[in-house]
Each structure stands twice: as structure tokens, then as C-alpha cells.
């Protein structure tokens, strides 16, 4: 089942999801001095928008909301690149999640899904323990309404075993509970996320002229992608249950 929305409703949904992407990007940030950029959790909202409403809403909300967050948080020099990179990311996730519905082989989806779960769990442990251990400066706020509060936190590298294990448990539960829904969500977001990682590297390397220093942000963006994958899978599963349909059989489209 699919629902065609009026122009007014489409614009309203795009505006709402853009606002959610913007807020999710603003509310929690980790500054990255090498590239003058920041880690955030905006991918959660970008992926959720794309998985629920499809590529058009996902693309526009991802581009508009993320670029606006860059401007509001003082990173306006990233806004042009962000608009394109996050817009493509949202579009890719939405497009692939629809395309993957056409594959009906349960065994193929099971193998693909469990492989993705293991790879993503290993990646989040490696990236987290390697690049997110030690003393980190975390900023929490919502400019321009709430100024950022910055705190220093000492994070043991071994603590990343916990989210890795929890990720496996949760995603395996989703896979067993809702069959291929979690599989196409995971695969779609990981592919879209890799476009984001590559896009920012190229933008920082060539446009912002950081050269190979742009590599410093790659692990942060990978972790950003993984966090977005985990949380959006949880949200999409919850939404699909709340409104009474499985996303592989239904979709809101603009």
C-alpha cells in the first residue's frame, strides 16, 4: 500500500522532518579540531525520514536540515557541502530501502542481514575504542535558544564492548522478529552512510584544502553512520508496529 500526498501535505512533512534533522544535528556535538567540523547524531533523523517517507523527503530533509544546523552552530563553511552530501545520503537510503523490498528470498536476506550486523558491530567497536577513548570534549545545547555546555569526559576504550554487544542483540532481535525489514534498513543506511563519509572527505580534501588531515574525520563520520543505523532501525521498527503495518509491504511516498 502506498499513499500519495497532496502538495501541501508533502511540503509540511518535508518541513517537519527538516526541523527534526536540524534539531538532532544541533543537540549533541563533539568538536573535531583537525577539520573544524563536529560529530553529531543527525544521521538518526536523516535515516528515519528516508526509511519512512522515501527518497524525496529523506533527501530534502537531510540536505536542508543538516545545512541549517551547520549555519546555526557556527559551521557555515560546511553548509554548501552538507546540503549536497546529506541530501544525497537521504535520497540513497530512501531509494535503496524501496528497491530492496523487491528481493523476496528469505535465506538470502538472512545471510546478508547477519553479515551486516556482524560487520557493523565490529566496526563500531574498532572505531569507538580507537578514536573515542580517552578525554573527549562534549557539547550539549540547542542554539540559538540554549547555549552549548561543554564538558570533558574520560571514556575508557573498553567501554565500547557494551554498545557493540547491545547492537548485535538488538539487531538480531529485529531480524528474527520482523524478517527482512531490518535487513534492508541496515543495508540501505550503511550504503548511504558510506556516501556521506566519502563525500565529507572529498569536500574537506579539495574544497576546504585540508589535504590528508581530512582523514581525521573519517572515523568520526563512520561512527556517526553506525549510530544512525542502530537508532533509526529501532525507531522505524517501533513506528511500523505503532501504525499497524510492516514497512516492506507499505510506504508513505511523496
TrEMBL record:
The keyword Transmembrane applies. GO terms for cellular component: membrane. Keywords: Membrane, Transmembrane, Transmembrane helix. The chain crosses the membrane at residues 12-32, 44-69, 75-99, 111-135, 155-176, 183-203, 209-236. InterPro entries: ECF_substrate-spec-like. The keyword Glycoprotein does not apply. This is ECF transporter S component.
Amino acid at each position: 500500500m502506498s499513499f500519495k500526498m497532496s502538495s501541501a501535505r508533502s511540503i509540511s512533512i518535508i518541513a517537519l522532518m527538516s526541523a527534526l534533522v536540524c534539531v538532532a544535528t544541533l543537540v549533541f556535538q563533539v568538536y573535531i579540531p583537525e577539520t573544524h567540523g563536529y560529530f553529531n547524531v543527525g544521521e538518526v533523523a536523516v535515516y528515519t525520514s528516508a526509511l519512512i517517507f522515501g527518497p524525496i523527503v529523506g533527501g530534502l530533509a537531510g540536505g536542508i536540515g543538516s545545512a541549517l544546523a551547520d549555519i546555526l552552530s557556527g559551521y557555515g563553511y560546511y553548509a554548501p557541502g552538507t546540503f549536497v552530501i546529506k541530501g544525497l545520503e537521504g535520497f540513497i537510503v530512501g531509494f535503496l530501502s524501496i528497491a530492496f523490498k523487491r528481493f523476496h528470498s528469505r535465506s538470502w536476506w538472512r545471510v546478508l542481514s547477519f553479515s551486516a550486523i556482524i560487520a557493523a558491530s565490529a566496526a563500531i567497536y574498532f572505531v569507538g575504542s580507537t578514536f573515542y577513548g580517552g578525554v573527549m570534549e562534549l557539547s550539549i545545547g540547542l542554539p540559538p535558544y540554549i547555549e552549548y555546555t561543554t564538558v570533558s569526559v574520560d571514556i575508557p576504550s573498553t567501554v565500547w564492548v557494551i554498545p557493540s554487544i547491545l547492537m548485535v542483540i538488538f539487531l538480531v532481535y529485529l531480524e528474527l522478529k520482523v524478517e527482512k525489514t531490518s535487513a534492508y534498513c541496515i543495508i540501505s543506511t550503511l550504503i548511504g552512510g558510506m556516501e556521506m563519509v566519502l563525500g565529507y572527505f572529498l569536500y574537506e580534501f579539495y574544497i576546504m584544502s585540508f589535504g590528508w588531515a581530512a582523514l581525521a574525520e573519517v572515523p568520526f563520520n563512520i561512527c556517526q553512520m553506525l549510530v544512525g543505523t542502530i537508532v533509526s532501525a529501532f525507531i522505524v521498527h517501533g513506528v511500523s508496529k505503532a501504525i499497524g503495518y510492516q514497512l516492506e509491504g507499505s510506504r508513505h511516498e511523496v
